[in-house]
Specification:
alpha+beta, Aspartate Aminotransferase, domain 1, about 30% strand
């Protein structure tokens, strides 16, 4: 299993009202693109969120959250959340809302 399918379904439910959402296989997991920008994703059984780098140090103090270090180096503006930080639906929604809020200001990596 490359990523947690039940977590993917939970994320899809949270993103159902947003348009356009595009799912892409990436980094061995699943990424949800919103308005052509990486927003949230799933790596194995963790939620990846692209958030405002200004609040990253604050949110990594929350249970289950850590800086994303996909390349063995911390990635500014990206966090991973394990089940202890998103076991409840309201907790999952908190993380996804952070990513959606930042998406409006995030730079697109799509080539124009």
């Amino acid at each position: 299993m490359a990523y947690d399918e039940s977590l993917a379904e939970r994320v899809r439910t949270c993103l159902a009202e947003l348009n356009p959402i595009e799912e892409k296989s990436m980094m061995g997991g699943l990424v949800f693109m919103y308005k052509d920008k990486m927003c949230v994703g799933i790596l194995k059984d963790e939620l990846m969120c692209r958030i405002d780098p200004e609040i990253q140090d604050e949110v990594v103090e929350k249970p289950g959250c850590r800086m994303m270090d996909f390349t063995k180096r911390p990635m500014k503006g990206y966090i991973l959340v394990d089940d202890t930080g998103m076991g409840k639906q309201k907790d999952l929604e908190y993380w996804i809302d952070l990513a959606i809020e930042f998406n409006a200001r995030a730079k697109s990596s799509k080539k124009k």
